[in-house]
Write a structure and sequence with these properties.
With 222 residues, this protein is α+β, with helices and mostly antiparallel strands. It folds into 2 domains: 132 residues, 60s Ribosomal Protein L30, Chain: A, CATH 3.30.1330.90; 71 residues, 2-Layer Sandwich (Alpha-Beta Plaits). It is built from 7 helices and 10 strands. A hairpin with a 2-residue loop joins β4 and β5. α2 packs parallel to α4.
Length: 222
């Protein structure tokens, strides 16, 4: 069910809720997934974004999101200059036609000396977005509620273990998906929650031997 806010769209710096606000949100989610300060960003605009990103300010919007700007930040229009001042290197690429992607799609690669992360997202209208791939793991989440991204070995009982730990925080799982590259290989768990997790619980999960990386998204004012 859509709310009136979905129909009207977000409070934002324009001109387009899909091509500006949505893109800024994907950029901001990507920054929080990366969870570090990037030195370099590579953005690939796909399908309709490839031909309209300059006119709709999608280039400024995605960099604004990577600078952690909210959609209504008046500095969004100056994001490229601000990024230059911060010595953030950025490059834009285009793929005019790729039927495997949503019409409004982009891929963001964030890079620094210690880490590289690649995120694909789509803007589906009214400023609503979905992240559809993180480092090669397929997913579908919005990051509008607390979200866990857990990279781990594909061990027996892992799903049961994770749900049990989360339940002890009196926290309900709204959505959960698991993506893995191969049987018994590395997998990635995407868990959207109805409420926040305690720091103690997050620390405990990070200490589990078969969990290689845990990212906790709790992005305010997204």
């Amino acid at each position: 069910m859509s709310s009136i806010f979905d129909l009207i769209g977000p409070v934002m710096i324009g001109p387009s809720s899909s091509h500006t606000a949505g893109v800024a949100r994907i950029g901001r989610i990507s920054l929080h997934i990366f969870n570090q300060v990037p030195d370099k960003v590579e953005v690939t605009f796909i399908n309709s974004f490839a031909t309209t990103y300059l006119g709709h300010g999608s280039d400024k919007a995605v960099i604004a999101g990577i600078l952690d700007f909210e959609t209504d930040n008046p500095e969004l229009k100056n994001s490229l200059e601000i990024a230059n001042d911060k010595k953030l290197e950025y490059h834009f690429f285009t793929v005019p036609t790729d039927n495997t992607f949503h019409p409004n799609s982009l891929i963001i690669k964030l890079i620094n000396n210690s880490k590289t992360t690649e995120i694909a997202g789509k803007s589906i209208g009214g400023g609503v977005v979905k992240i559809v791939n993180v480092d090669g793991f397929e997913c579908s989440f919005t990051a509008t509620s607390p979200t866990l991204i857990i990279k781990a070995k594909d061990v027996k009982g892992s799903i049961s273990f994770l749900t049990d730990v989360i339940s002890h925080d009196d926290c309900n799982i709204a959505n959960m998906s698991v993506s893995r590259r191969s049987k018994n290989g590395e997998g990635c768990y995407f868990i959207e929650l109805d409420s926040e997790l305690r720091e103690l619980t997050l620390s405990y999960l990070k200490s589990i031997s078969w969990i290689s990386e845990l990212i906790y998204l709790n992005i305010k004012n997204l």
